[in-house]
Each structure stands twice: as C-alpha cells, then as structure tokens.
Specification:
heterodimer, A: alpha+beta, Heat Shock Protein 90, five-stranded antiparallel sheet, 3 helices, globular, B: alpha/beta, Transcription Regulator spoIIAA, 4 helices, 5 strands
C-alpha cells in the first residue's frame, strides 16, 4: 500500500455532520486498501462512534465540536474520534447481547464498533471529553 | 437514500410494511413507528416488515425495530421481518438483535407464518 497522508476533520455536533464524515472514512479506507465489504462495516462503526460523540458526549451542544482523525500504514487503519463532553467508561456501557439487555432500545453502537474493529479503546481526553481510538488491520495478502 | 414505508393490507389480515432506503438516525425512522402504532391501534397487529430493500441500518434503526417488536407484542400481535440482507443480518448478530426479532427468508414465508398463526 502506498503511504497515505493523515486526514483530520472537525465536525459540528449535529446528526447531519455524520453522513459526510462517514463517506470520508470510506474513501480513506479504500485508499488504504480495504475491500468494499470492510469499508461498509468500518463506515458503520465510525458512524456509531460519531453519533455517540454528538449525542452522548457533546449532547448536541453547538458550541462543542467532534474531532475525526484518520491515519494508515501498510498494516492497519487507525481512526480517532474526540468529543468535548463529560466522558464515559466503556465498562459502564451495558452489553446489548446479554439476556437482560436484549430488548433495550439503545446501547448497540459500541457493540457494533467492538465487533468490527480489531482494537478499540476509550480514554478521557485532556482537558475534558472522550477520545476513542479504533484500529482495523488490513487483511493479509 | 430517504427512508420510506409502504403499507399493504392482505386478505389474510396480515399487513406488510415494505421498507426502503437507509435506516439511520436522522432519516425519519419515526415513519416506521407511526405506521406500526396506527396498525396496532386498529388491532391490525400481524405485521411483516419487508426488509429486502434495506441495505443499511445503524443502531438507532435497531432500537426502532426492537421498539416496534415490543409494541406489537404488547398489543397481542406478532411482528416478523422478511428478506433481511446478509450485511444487515450481520449487524443484527453483532448486537444480539437477531435473538429478539423473528425473521424469515422471504416476504411470502413471513406472511405464511403469520397467516398460519391466525
């Protein structure tokens, strides 16, 4: 794979920001060498984390922004999403696949990202907010 | 793609809601909830959701589908999904949604299952 320049974008905290950002991620993943099926699920995983940042992180506060940063090397694609909200602990997010949570209406976005990505971590951002880092490895040739 | 819901009442008493477009947050997912609410109010609570023209769902859509399932069941009826594409099915599996919703390969299969249960 050729070396790709990193991509960064700052999004407003509105749902309408997400479609364009997802499209950017899919294009970047294509440049990085991922096949269409992988791009579909990578795009969905990033959509979920962006919605999470806008809705649960920044709580649709127009004065707060969501950051998206993409980078790739010959082995993998790294996606980072930051918000300016209160932050959350991944351990506190209920697993929607447990019997007691199956009929909950919310809480499935993180499960999608965890299933799609090879690495997923959540950290407190400094000075505040949440930093989500996701890595998807390129399939071995 | 805009999300659309088209309703067809069958002689068997089953109603088919044919869905099309992208099922994502901000794309008028409430259309489906409204359609299901209208049907259950009229006691038309044997409902098939034809998903064969849905190629993309996010977690908000999963929440809406589970909400519809719950409201139909609460009214004493049954909701079945038909024609779920492989990728949408994969998203259902990732999230456990496949354990909640009843699914059939085709619309005819789902209609037959509900007609037989009448």
């Amino acid at each position: 794979m050729k070396s790709l320049p990193a991509f960064s974008s700052t999004l407003d905290s509105v749902v309408e920001s997400v479609d364009g950002a997802e499209e950017s991620v899919r294009r970047f993943a294509e440049e990085a060498g991922f096949e269409e099926s992988d791009r579909y699920f990578i795009g969905l995983a990033v959509r979920e984390i962006l919605i999470n940042a806008i809705k649960h992180g920044n709580r649709f506060d127009q004065s707060k922004k969501v950051g998206l940063h993409l980078s790739a090397n010959s082995d993998d694609l790294t996606i980072e999403v930051t918000d300016q909200g209160e932050g959350f602990q991944i351990e506190s997010v209920p697993d929607p696949r447990l019997p007691e949570n199956l009929e909950r209406r919310s809480g499935r976005g993180i499960a999608i990202a965890l299933s799609v990505m090879d690495e997923f971590s959540v950290d407190r951002n400094s000075p505040g907010g949440t930093h989500v880092r996701m890595v998807k490895r390129l399939p071995a040739l | 793609m805009p999300f659309e819901v088209e309703s067809s009442a069958l002689d068997s008493g089953v109603t088919v809601l044919a869905l099309s477009g992208s099922m994502t947050m901000g794309n008028q997912l409430q259309k489906l909830e409204w359609a299901v609410q209208e049907l259950t109010k009229k006691n038309q609570n044997r409902i098939v959701l034809d998903m064969s023209k849905i190629s993309y769902v996010d977690s908000s859509a999963l929440g809406v589908l589970i909400g519809c399932h719950g409201s139909v069941r609460g009214s004493g009826g049954q909701l079945r999904l038909a024609g779920v594409t492989a990728r949408v099915s994969a998203v259902f599996k990732m999230t456990g949604t496949d354990q909640v919703l009843s699914m059939d390969p085709t619309r005819d299969d789902a209609v037959s299952a509900l007609s037989a249960g009448a």
